[in-house]
Amino acid sequence: MHFSPLMIIASAIAGSAAHVTLQPSSKHDENDLITGLDWNDTSPALVERNFLARCGLGFGKCSDDGCCSTAGYCGKTKAHCRSPDCQIDYGHCDAHMTPDGPPTSGIPRPKVGKVPYGPKVVRSCVGAGNIALTFDDGPNKYTEDLLDLLDKYDAKVTFFITGNNNAKGPIDTPGMPWASMIERMYQSGHQIASHTWSHQDLSKITPEQRRIQILWNEVALRNILGGFPTYMRPPYSSCTEKSGCLKDMGNLGYHVILYDIDTEDYRHDSSSAIQGSKDIFDKNLARAKASHKSWLVIAHDVHEQTVYNLTEHMVKKASKDGYNIVTVGECLDDPEENWYRMDESSELTILRKTKPLATANRVISHDGRCGGNVTCRGSKFGSCCGKNNYCGNSPKHCGFGCQPNAGHCQKARHTSTVHKHGPEKRPATSDAGSLLPPGLSVVELVLFAALASSAGDLLRLLVFALIHESLG
């Protein structure tokens, strides 16, 4: 007769149930659970409390390329691996995915212009009559609609770009929409700035990790534009002098930009709550007249209400009160040639163009069609021109038959590698969620059950056996 692991452990539980009383979960344990796992009807409360799956301070690193979630559990789902929640010191995260191409660390970084570089911090604009609207954390799913709205009002803003956060994948990945959006930002007259690679708190990581956060984002932006910004905003506005962060930003040639109006849109992302952010904006503008004051405003294009509600309100209110809506560089009276550093080895010429693409012998597609002198670069339909003369970002547009003279075309993307200063193993990018130790045999389960000291432990083993049988 064949005895499955389930039968063996169920028998063990039955034999011990008379001697052990099950204890209810504490409130603290409930707060530690991770939601959104791909476990069907299996209780995450039982699976994730297994001590073999814990990670973080006091537990150590995950094995088998597992990601360490913000709550301290190993796994390979997006919930475990997405940055910035994934713990980069205790497992693999999407933050460890490196952008393709040569490093930017050797590019000269002269400090030009009159805007201060780190370790000094910029918190406000100069002069009067301007409002610099800024948007952090994107691009993401709402950004394209935000660009449409800004075009409607001919408003120019600054985007602080994050390279790989919220499980969106690297911004320079062929076939994804992010590169096309960033091209469009630039072609539309918006300023592009850095918000780091994966949105880590720069004051809480090592100096080498800080360099990675900046340099990898530079590489990805260079892969799209041919250069990278000289302006940055630290995630969570956290870059302290004590940690060495501000000095590091200065050494890397960055202006560190904060703000003097925080819309707090991250707190108000619902139709009923967004009025709170509108009130913050309006009350600040009421403190001074446009003839005497300028403002530097922070918002986030990853929030729905910011894109579809707050931004239009800010644009209308600013115009009504007599302000010009400008980029950060403009509000600091910094010439545009100081906003970026060029990679002279790059074949991309987007940042080198002194005129919009539409006047450089090519026209940006306005209806999704491409070919001839009509390009997809900078269009809202996607940056690749497929063999059927339509713009898009899918493999059929960017792969075989793609027209390189009318848009981007996909090159073979290398498997993400990890630099010598990064983690020792390749990152886990699977959406699978198995926490069961691989290769667990029936004999091992029996021995494990024999060592268990409570029915609670045996219940955990029972769940492992169920998963083992379903996967086997």
Automatic annotation (TrEMBL):
Cofactor(s) listed: Co(2+)
SMART domains per record: ChtBD1
In this chain the Chitin-binding type-1 domain maps to 52-95, 367-411
Q: List the disulfide bonds.
A: 62-74, 67-81, 370-385, 384-398
| Gene Ontology molecular-function annotations | chitin binding; hydrolase activity, acting on carbon-nitrogen (but not peptide) bonds; metal ion binding
Any one GO BP annotation for this protein:
carbohydrate metabolic process
Protein name, please? Glycoside hydrolase/deacetylase
Gene source species: Aspergillus caelatus
